[in-house]
């Protein structure tokens, strides 16, 4: 059987076949022992896995022109890493959505702290008001150690990225093309800076040219890797509103900055607020409070705090930035409810977790969840 490392090249190879998306890749991964076996399977085996005849034909006809080993070498030369959804480096939040990309390409570095991310989106034709708001929010989020995600587009996206870089924060750009092709081309230098202080990510293989239909698909990743989406400004049919709708479908929080009732570029955000689909925000702290991140971002000293025993470590691994009821914590951890209750009380006293509602808890960001027995020796 192929190892996970060996199998990656076949995940990458399948990503070259346009008909193999999340559903069909899942069928192959479930049916075959490895993607190596799936790649070598004949038409009958592919049909047995549940693929339709059109996809089987695409795979059989496409394989002769795709060399899995050569694909990995291209990535190496381009300085791009690839992660299948079964790999540890694949973003946890992205795994949650139904149409997650089978392979994610990364230039730069994704870090555990990127779990605390907020997407900032808006029109390419930013108004002075929008530009100022994007800069203000992105800068403040970065100063609170929140990773800012956007799409590298002209206008609000670029302003958000540049503001975070200037503040010394982390930012992630989601592209609708291969990572060896920067779009728009005038943002090549910005993209390089982002890769050094965050990451460029895409679900499209190297060499893929940007096309209009790729951008809405790109937006699903933008919202999926984030805890919430901030709409700065955009009309009702803008890409920013598409991203907001996707965020709602993915059970992410949506925030919007109110704007002029006379400006077309503010109609989208104003409508989201009016229809109750987005929370009106006027400062970054509004977002942090809604996402239960205020305590965590105001206590950098928590980085050095470690659990006192295996019970605390187990509970911290279960908890996240999303509220979890104590009954669910007990179910997932498998620990006695009395142990869970007392350990949570102690963790709350230490400032490592916070109670957000009746018997619901969240974990403070950047807490070390590793328990070392050496500390008790």
Q: What does it look like?
A:
The chain is α/β, with parallel strands linked by helices and 377 residues long. The protein folds into three domains: 69 residues; 180 residues, Rossmann fold; 77 residues, Orthogonal Bundle (Arc Repressor Mutant, subunit A), CATH 1.10.10.10. 43% of the residues lie in helices and 13% in strands. The chain is built from 17 helices and twelve strands. The strands form two sheets. A nine-stranded mixed sheet has the order 1-2-6-5-4-3-7-8-9, with helices on both faces. Strand 11 and strand 12 form a beta hairpin. Helix 7 packs parallel to helix 8. The protein is globular and about 55 Å long. It starts with a helix and ends in a 14-residue tail after the last strand. The C terminus is likely disordered.
> How many domains, in number, for the residues?
3
The general outline is globular
Task: Please mark out the parts with pLDDT under 50 across 5 or more consecutive residues, or reply none.
Answer: 298-304, 372-377
Beta-strand percentage? 5-15%
Number of strands: 12
Radius of gyration: 22 Å
The CATH class of the largest domain: Alpha Beta
Helical residue percent? Answer: 40-55%
Instruction: Write the CATH architecture name of the largest domain.
Output: 3-Layer(aba) Sandwich
| Arithmetic mean of pLDDT | 88
Distance between the termini: 42 Å
Q: How many distinct helices?
A: 17
Q: Tell me about the biggest sheet?
A: 9 strands, mixed
CATH third-level topology of the largest domain = Rossmann fold
Structural class: alpha/beta
Strand order of the largest sheet: 1-2-6-5-4-3-7-8-9
| SSE ordering | HHHHHHEEEHEHEHEHEHEHEHHHEHHEE
């Amino acid at each position: 059987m192929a190892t996970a490392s060996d199998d990656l090249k076949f995940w990458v190879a399948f990503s070259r076949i346009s008909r193999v998306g999340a559903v069909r890749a899942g069928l192959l991964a479930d049916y075959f022992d490895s993607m190596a076996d799936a790649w070598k399977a004949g038409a009958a085996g592919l049909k047995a896995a549940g693929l339709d005849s059109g996809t089987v034909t695409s795979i059989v006809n496409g394989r002769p022109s795709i060399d899995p080993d050569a694909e990995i070498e291209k990535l190496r030369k381009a300085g791009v890493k690839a992660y299948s959804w079964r790999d540890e480096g694949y973003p946890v939040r992205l795994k949650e959505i139904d149409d997650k990309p089978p392979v994610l390409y990364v230039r730069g570095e994704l870090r555990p702290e990127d779990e605390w991310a907020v997407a900032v989106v808006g029109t390419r034709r930013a108004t002075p008001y929008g530009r100022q708001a994007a800069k203000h929010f992105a800068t403040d989020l970065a100063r609170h150690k929140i990773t800012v995600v956007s799409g590298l587009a002209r206008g609000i996206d670029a302003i958000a990225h540049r503001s975070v870089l200037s503040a010394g924060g982390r930012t992630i750009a989601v592209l609708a093309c291969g990572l060896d092709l920067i779009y728009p081309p005038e943002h090549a230098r910005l993209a390089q800076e982002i890769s050094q202080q965050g990451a460029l990510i895409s679900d499209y293989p190297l060499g893929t040219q940007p096309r209009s239909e790729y951008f809405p698909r790109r937006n699903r990743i933008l919202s999926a890797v984030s805890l919430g989406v901030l709409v700065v400004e955009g009309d009702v049919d803008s890409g920013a509103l598409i991203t907001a709708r996707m965020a709602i479908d993915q059970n992410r929080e949506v925030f919007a900055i109110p704007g002029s009732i006379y400006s077309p570029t503010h109609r989208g955000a104003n409508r989201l607020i009016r229809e109750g689909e987005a929370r009106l925000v006027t400062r970054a702290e509004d977002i942090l409070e809604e996402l239960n991140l205020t305590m965590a971002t105001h206590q950098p000293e928590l980085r050095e705090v470690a659990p006192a025993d295996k019970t605390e470590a187990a509970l911290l691994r279960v908890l996240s930035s999303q509220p979890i009821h104590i009954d669910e914590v007990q179910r997932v951890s498998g620990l006695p409810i009395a142990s869970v209750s007392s350990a949570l009380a102690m963790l709350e006293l230490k400032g490592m977790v916070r109670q957000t509602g009746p018997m619901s808890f969240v974990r403070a960001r950047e807490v070390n969840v590793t328990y070392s027995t050496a500390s008790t020796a």
